[in-house]
Design goal:
Function: Converts 2C-methyl-D-erythritol 2,4-cyclodiphosphate (ME-2,4cPP) into 1-hydroxy-2-methyl-2-(E)-butenyl 4-diphosphate.
Distance between the termini: 34 Å
Structural class: alpha/beta
Number of helices: 12
Binding site for [4Fe-4S] cluster: 257, 260, 292, 299
CATH superfamily of the largest domain: Dihydropteroate synthase-like
Cofactor: [4Fe-4S] cluster
Strand order of the largest sheet: 3-4-5-6-7-8-9-10
CATH architecture of the largest domain: Alpha-Beta Barrel
GO molecular function: 4 iron, 4 sulfur cluster binding; 4-hydroxy-3-methylbut-2-en-1-yl diphosphate synthase activity (ferredoxin); 4-hydroxy-3-methylbut-2-enyl-diphosphate synthase activity (flavodoxin); iron ion binding
Radius of gyration: 23 Å
Number of strands: 15
Domain IspG C-terminal: 253-340
Shape: elongated
Amino acid sequence: MSRIVKIGKISIGGGNPIAIQSMTNTDTRDTKATLEQINALYRAGCDLVRVSIPDFESLDAFAAIVKCSPVPLIADIHYDYRLAIGAIEKGASKVRINPGNIGQSWKVREIVSAAKDYGIPIRVGANSGSIKESFKAYETKAIALAESALEETHILESLGFYDIVISAKSSSVIETIEANKYISSKVDYPLHIGVTEAGIFETAVVKSSVGIGTLLLEGIGDTIRVSIAGDPLTEVRIAKKLLKSLNLREGVEVIACPTCARTEIDVESLAYDVENWLEGLDKNLTVAVMGCVVNGIGEGKDADIGIAGTASGAVIFTKGEIVKRVKKDILKRDFLKLVKEYLRKN
C-alpha cells in the first residue's frame, strides 16, 4: 500500500479514496474565468485541480484564485524555480515540477526548502515525450519511462524530501500500465495515473478506461486524470463513471439496453435525460433504461429502479416488478418521485 500524502484537505494513498484530478484550460491571468472553471469542476465532482503558471502575471492571479478556490490547487511549473517558490508562498497545495528542466541543482534545492517550510508535497515524474536519451537504452520504453520518473524522485530524496507524488504517463496504454507497475514495485509513493494525450472523446475514454482501470484493479494508483482534448468537465464526468464502475466511488449508474426492433422509445435520448435528472445525487443507485417491456424488465431486474418503454409512454419498475405505468409527458415527474421514495426506504 502506498504512503499517505496530504494535498490540502485531500489525503491520497494509504487506502484513501481515489482522488479525481483535472486541469484548467483558461488563461490563468483571467482570474474570473479560471475561478468559474474551477468551481464548475468542483460541482462536477473534481477533488483536485491543477493550474498552469507560465509567468509572473499568472502567479499574481494565482494568489487571488487560491483564496476563492473550493478545492486544493496544484501549481503546474516548468523551467523557472521562482514561479514554483512563488506558488508555494501564495497557497498552492502541491506543486508539479520536473527537476530536470528546472536547471541547476541549487534551484531545485530552493523549491524543496520552500515546500518543506510550507508543508506541501511535490509531484514529479515523466511522460513519453520527455524521456532523456540516456534512458533509451533500457529494454523497453515503459521501463525507460519509469526509470526517468524515478530519477526525478531520487533528486528530491537526495535533498531529504519525501513528501512526493509520482506520475509516469504515456499516450500508449500498454506503456502507461507497464511503467506504473514497475514504479509501484520499486517505491511506495502515491501514484498519479492516467494516459496522457489520449485524444478526442471516444478514443480518450477507451484508452483511459483500459489504462486507468487496469491499474486500479491491481491496486495501483491513488489519484487519476482522464485526459481528453476539450472541456475538462468531461474529464471529471468520465472519471466518476470509471470509478463508479469499479465500485470505488458512490453515485448513480445508468445502464441501458443496446436496442432492437422491439424498442418502443428512444433509449439513448432517455438514458441521457435520466442522467441529467439525477445529476448531483451522491447515493449508490443503479437505474435501468430499457427499450421495451418484453425483455427489458427481466434484463433490468438487478437495477434498483428502471424504466421500460411502451407504445404510449413507459412503465417504471423496481427490482423487476412493475410499480407504475405512466404517460410520456409525466414520466420525469413520476420517476423522480419514485426514486425519492426508493431512496427513503433503502
